[in-house]
Amino acid sequence: MKTRHRAYAYITNGCRLLLFTQPGAPEAGIQVPAGTIEPGENPRDAVMREAQEETGLSGIRFVRFLARDTRDMRDCGSDELQHRWFFHLSLEGPTEETWRYGEHSEDGSLIHPFDFFWADVLTLPQLVAGYDDKIDLLIKSIKTDK
Fold first, then answer.
1. Cβ neighbours of residue 41 closer than 8 Å, sequence gap 6 or more
2. pLDDT the model gives residue 98
3. To 10 degrees, the CA torsion angle through 24, 27, 32, 34?
4. Cα–Cα distance for residue pair 20/116, rounded to 1 Å
5. pTM, full prediction
């Protein structure tokens, strides 16, 4: 079984959580920004890098580390054990309600688009592959941050 280290970004704007879908791969479900922690990279640095790279947003601030766990991903069809770090990040002030951003090719064209949207943290849709496993800790963090 392969092992990976991943950082998950729960980015909030007030009591809203940033989510996205992949229009070219609807089977990927609803997700939060997340990505691989590179060898030797600090998980906090990884989550900040991934949040900016995936969303295109600037001004995201670190709020707090929420939790770390390990998840067997075979229930999602992947022979992988993930060591996961969850973080609460925040974007203050007004923001677009929806937007498209994603991975770009060397010539600047969008090759892997993500459709971002905000959802009330108390009435979230079902997220894929355990991405919502630490939402209860996020809600406590939001209450603490006020």
1. 49
2. 97
3. -80
4. 4
5. 0.94
Of 13, 42, 14, 46, residue with least CA distance to 116: 13
Question: Which value, to the nearest 10 degrees, does the dihedral of the CA atoms of residues 10, 61, 50, 72 take?
Answer: -30
Q: Where are the alpha helices (DSSP H) in the chain?
A: 43-55, 135-145
d(CA 31, CA 121): 13
Tokens 């959580």: give the residue. 17
As a whole number of angstroms, the distance between CA 82 and CA 85 comes to: 10
Tokens of 82: 């993930």
Average pLDDT for consecutive 10-residue bins of the chain (146 residues)?
96 97 94 96 97 94 97 89 97 95 85 95 95 96 83
